[in-house]
Amino acid sequence: MTSMPASASGRPVPRFTIGSSLKMYFGHRRQVEWTRRVAEIAADHPAVRDGLVQPFVIPTFPSIAAVHQQADPAGMLVGAQDVHWEDSGAYTGEVSAPELAELGVALVEIGHAERRALFGETDSTAALKVAASLRHGLVPVLCIGEQDRGTPAAAAEECLRQLEACLAAARRQETGGALVVAYEPVWAIGQPVPAPDAHIRAVTSALRAHLLDDGLVPDARVIYGGSAGPGLLTRIASDVDGMFLGRFAHDPAAFGAILDEASDIGGGSDSRTS
Question: CATH class for domain 14-265?
């Protein structure tokens, strides 16, 4: 597996992809200020400067342009929290992939557990959004995860099922590109601690192996989210490509702490076959 296309600038291919979706926690000013502070940390951090980490932020739709101004100079990618599957039309309140690309958006979060629970997102609609994103050069951040806690084997089986269902439309259109799969067990989201290390590693290693063998999306990464916090990356680094940070990262200094952790790990813990 390789990396997201963040290395187009000529920097080394990043070992880790690390970022946060701000959901609807912050207003516009606080999102811009949060990004400014994180961008300052990232721009001066050796993990980012040396190409070990590709940082990203996913703000609300109205804040994308202003956040992009803060993030871009530091090499942070900017994402959107959703996308519609059609390129244009009478879809009041929706935003298309071509428009997001026009705004300089690089990533699109798709299929998050909250979208599924609150707004009726399904594997079928997520699949259409993945395909639309890939058509227009955007990187889907596809969120998958089992609903209830069970064995790692059962979790891996369910996540592989979700992954295949969410890639079905992309498979039909035969569009390559880049993909980030965010493994977020639903039962761990918002909890005081993440899923057990062995559980995470079993599922993420299964996902990585499947994506590598499949080859549909030539540039695919697997990151972990779900109460991801300090110390976790060190313990699971051999089986993940990064972290999808939640409320822990609302303090910009905490984002910096994760970058410190990535620096301590370095590039040597990657067990993938490139």
Answer: alpha beta
